[in-house]
Task: inverse folding
DNA sequence: TCTTGACCTTACAGTGACTGGAAGCCTTAT
DNA sequence: ATAAGGCTTCCAGTCACTGTAAGGTCAAGA
């Protein structure tokens, strides 16, 4: 398979696949013409990566996950640990975003949004938030 | 005020303040010794920026917000529009993170997490997600 | 006066995970 | 023969900083 084929089948842009080769996540062989020659195993890896990335795992997490995936003697506890820690990160991010959302929603609700300059949003940004 | 003072009072690292000067968000005067000499107005701007950034606005949004803030003839509708659009982005991100969270939670719950290699998390990553 | 240490300056490189673009080679179809 | 499309490499740009190096400035103490 050429890079265009694996791109179509993995859902990853060709650019990204080249990048993944650069950083050593996949190591496709080369055809005589210099083109990357992907095996089914490479495609499988790339699809794995695409799914892990879609779940928000960092590249380094993905590298670790791939390593565990290919290690028949892995302990599922190691995988679970990675996933749990990533879940915690996700929850942190959600919490942060919810705080932003709540604060901003209050300001937006307070703003009449017409052509007058008076604006509670700017007022809120220009003064110390009432922290209690 | 020197940069250390405004850093302490705005909560922004000195590095970040220099960066904000580089990209034209603030333009402090200079003392004869070459040090940045911040006025109260600069500090106020930086605190504004710190709060807008804490709400997740991009630097370019912040630039626009600052422009509106300093424009006495602004329409509050313009500010509101920016804020509403940013709120939508926040909500999108939350929704995406919640999807990741849900998927990952299912996998984590299914994983016994002991020293056996059998692992539903890796299995889930290695096969096409059942999409319904 | 000298020194120490904290503060300030610039400039350049690195982060994460790509993405875009230029310049050029290879393949396939007409 | 040529044109279109796919492939190659390499370099630069994104976003918002952050780290580091090399050096200038200032206030306090011996």
Result:
């Amino acid at each position: 398979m050429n890079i265009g084929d694996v791109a179509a089948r993995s859902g990853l842009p060709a650019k990204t696949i080249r990048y993944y080769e650069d950083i050593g996540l996949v190591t496709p062989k080369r055809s005589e013409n210099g083109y990357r020659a992907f095996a089914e195993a490479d495609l499988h890896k790339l699809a794995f990566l695409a799914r892990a990335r879609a779940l928000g795992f960092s590249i380094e997490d993905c590298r670790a996950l791939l390593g565990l995936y290919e290690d028949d003697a892995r302990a599922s506890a190691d995988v679970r640990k990675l996933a749990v820690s990533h879940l915690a990160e996700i929850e942190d991010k959600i919490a942060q975003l919810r705080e932003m959302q709540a604060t901003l929603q209050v300001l937006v609700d307070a703003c009449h949004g017409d052509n007058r300059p008076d604006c509670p949003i700017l007022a809120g940004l220009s003064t110390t938030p009432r922290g209690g």
Remarks:
- The first strand of chain A starts at residue 29 and ends at 30.
- Chain A has two domains: 1-57, 75-132.
- Residues 2-4, 14, 18, 33-36 of chain A lie near DNA strand D (CB under 10 Å from a C1').
